[in-house]
From TrEMBL:
<keyword id="KW-0378">Hydrolase</keyword>
<keyword id="KW-1133">Transmembrane helix</keyword>
<dbReference type="Pfam" id="PF00004">
    <property type="entry name" value="AAA"/>
</dbReference>
<keyword id="KW-0547">Nucleotide-binding</keyword>
<feature type="region of interest" description="Disordered">
    <location>
        <begin position="120"/>
        <end position="143"/>
    </location>
</feature>
<feature type="compositionally biased region" description="Basic and acidic residues">
    <location>
        <begin position="396"/>
        <end position="407"/>
    </location>
</feature>
<dbReference type="Pfam" id="PF08740">
    <property type="entry name" value="BCS1_N"/>
</dbReference>
<feature type="transmembrane region" description="Helical">
    <location>
        <begin position="20"/>
        <end position="38"/>
    </location>
</feature>
<feature type="compositionally biased region" description="Basic and acidic residues">
    <location>
        <begin position="476"/>
        <end position="490"/>
    </location>
</feature>
<dbReference type="GO" id="GO:0005743">
    <property type="term" value="C:mitochondrial inner membrane"/>
</dbReference>
<keyword id="KW-0472">Membrane</keyword>
<keyword id="KW-0496">Mitochondrion</keyword>
<dbReference type="InterPro" id="IPR057495">
    <property type="entry name" value="AAA_lid_BCS1"/>
</dbReference>
<feature type="compositionally biased region" description="Polar residues">
    <location>
        <begin position="492"/>
        <end position="505"/>
    </location>
</feature>
<feature type="compositionally biased region" description="Acidic residues">
    <location>
        <begin position="120"/>
        <end position="138"/>
    </location>
</feature>
<dbReference type="Pfam" id="PF25426">
    <property type="entry name" value="AAA_lid_BCS1"/>
</dbReference>
<feature type="compositionally biased region" description="Basic and acidic residues">
    <location>
        <begin position="578"/>
        <end position="594"/>
    </location>
</feature>
Amino acid sequence: MAVNQSDPSSTRVTLSQSDTAILEALVPGYTFISRIFLSYLHIDLAAYLQYFIALALFSICMRYVSEYLTQFFETYLISTAEVRLDDEIFNYIMYWWSRQPHTKHTNRFLAGVRTNGYWSDDEDSDHEESDSEDDEWEGVNGSTTAESFDDYWMRVINRDKYKKLRFTPAQGRHYFWYQGRLLMLDRRYEQTTARWVLNNEKLYLSCLGRDPSILHKLLADAQQKFVERDGGRTIIYRGQRGSSGSTFSWNRCMSRPPRPLDTVILDDTQKQGFLGDIENYLEKGTAAWYAEHGIPYRRGYLLSGPPGTGKSSLCFAVAGKLGLKIYLLNLSSRALDEDNLYSLFSELPRRCILLVEDVDTSEITHSRGPSIFPQSANSKDDDSPPKPGGNSSPDDTGKKNSKEKAEQPGITLSSLLNVLDGVAASEGRILVMTTNHPEKLDDALLRAGRIDMQIEFRLAISEDIEKLYKSIYSVSKEERTRQSSRRENGSRPPSQNGSAKNANGSIEKIGNGHAEEHKPNSVQGRRHELQTRIESLAKDFASLVPSGEFSPAEIQGYLLKHKGHPERAIREVAEWVKEEKEKKRAKKEAEAKLTNKNKS
């Protein structure tokens, strides 16, 4: 490289052909660009080449130095907590963040109206229900005319048109103060070639210093706020696939107020036996006793009976009384394979109820027919061997069944049995299966150790019918307590014109209420009179409904049609019984004709 320094104003650097070729290879188009600069701007790029190289080297060095300093700073001077989307703590943080005051002033947020794990429609429905009660109470006390249904429904429809907006932190870094400390929340969507895209979203909570105690406090506070939102409600999870191609997981679907156990229509001996057995299983020392005797710490129940007899209701009521979470599993899902089934069972907590409803609808649980081992007298007609002289031989039938089973996706009975009480089966959970046809289930599924107690539900008898009638028309304890507190506060209870609310919120007239304003004690007396009348009315109603012919759900459905008129329900029940019997008779005749047609 030769440098001409005779004239500083016209400094030019002459590069050799090899140097020019190297620059052309490193910077494509260098020769063309240098000629343009030299011709039009009279600037020789070769004269400044050394400065360009120095600047490039400095930039590269600064890049590596900044990365090193950043890594050093984050490693030794910052504490960070990583939270993944597939963990429930992600929902805790999102719920906690959405309730913080600083979220109202942030200029970067993710807005949406869709419900998910940390928001549910139950929360909004509770607010709407309380608002409706307040509106009704204000209408009773503040106006002389009640709101018509059209006006009320128009107001409800207009309110439902606007879904509640929900705000969460947008992608990127967010700085906020918590207990006097500056923290940072970083929400990232990491790009990867993994199959399950949902797991790529992560949260990073960071604070200055090597002491992460402030992060532990924040996470504990978020969990407490999330749990306190539910209160005494029963949380229900469902095993389902998050997105196409992803694995199955337990997703929170709803939370419901606990159902009182006395509202489940069942023999008190069976009801208390079921509850007592679960309490004995969950009490202190039981797990150690099972381990000492070499017995797997598991418990299984089968609730069988006709549809509408309260099998699922009993499970829900017991879960609410004991504060247990319910996990729903559908065995009929074709997308559920053996690996996903094992994954779902491994994620179950130790104290929960695993509910498998209508287990007889899944083909894998059906009886496999008689075996070489001795069995009970109950034979399975559906899976009996083919009769001699049939159109297909046993070999052909076996090949056909094997081919069909190989083509069908989903789980098998063997995998279900292994996950229930196999070597790698989870312990501590309570399995509850419901069925309308226990005779269809395979004996291996019903053996001791998998099903420890079986409760058979019945159709409603006279005693059950009386309980149903009184539960519909009796004033609930909660309503009586609310009305008593309102009277103590000096306000008039919502019982104008001699009306009283029953358990379903409907208005039941007691008598002429024109003189009620002048008789403060008449309301309480008439309520007592109503309770006395309901006792006798319930017996009259039970005498008109045949015992052991209708399910509690059928009778309850009829009573709900007359929820505000207990006497009308008694007058019209005979006609309803006659119609229902005719419908059932016609249905049986149709089924018999279809069966005879298939046999022929």
